[in-house]
Amino acid sequence: MEKLNPAAIAKIDEIVAKHKDEPGPCIVMLHDVQNEIGYIPFEAMEKIAEACGSSVAEVYGVVMFYAQFTTEPKGKHVINVCLGTACYVKGGQKLIDQAVELTGAPINGTSSDGLFSLDATRCLGACGLAPVAVVDGNTIGLATENNKLLTALKKIIAEEKAASLRA
Predict the structure, then answer these.
(1) Checking phi first, is residue 136 left (phi over 0); if not, alpha (psi -120 to 50) or beta?
(2) Nearest-5° angle of CA 91, CA 157, CA 5?
(3) What is the 3-state secondary structure (H, E, C) of 93-109?
């Protein structure tokens, strides 16, 4: 298990202190930690469990139950591709394959350079726009049409390359 830096630990402590006296604070704390740090490390679950008067196993159970929580750091850019029935039938697997090839991120993992995380999801609730992908919170419906997803990813890659050249 990787050690958190002091800034991340301080942020977790701040979040726990802010919400510990509220009713039902566990999920609020988990959301805040993930929003601030990008994932929910084990150390955060320990602190949240202590503040809520529950076990680490109970907090871990909440983290594992809700799909929006992650215990692994995500890449700078997060790609979700729907593989629900409508999306799969209309090319969802092709989108996943193209995203893996272009970004180097494995399915449900992060690229070695830390730029991209790629998650296969079961439903994004936009079946009428199948196949659907979400990139950095932006929904791309009919994502195979005119290579919309690939175009979006190539744009991000170009912007990242330009930014690294300026640095």
Answers:
(1) left
(2) 110
(3) HHHHHHHHHHHCCCECE
Q: What's the CATH number for 77-166?
A: 3.40.30.10
For all residues of the chain together, what is the average pLDDT? 92
Query: C-alpha distances in angstroms, 31 versus 8, 73, 108, 139?
Result: 15, 14, 20, 21
Is residue 158 pLDDT above 60, yes or no? yes
Contact 15, 33 (CB under 8 A): yes
The whole-number pLDDT of residue 124 equals: 85
Which candidate, 41, 102, 113, places its Cα nearest to that of 75? 113
C-alpha closest to that of 26 among 15, 14, 11: 15
* Domain layout of the chain by residue ranges: 6-65, 77-166
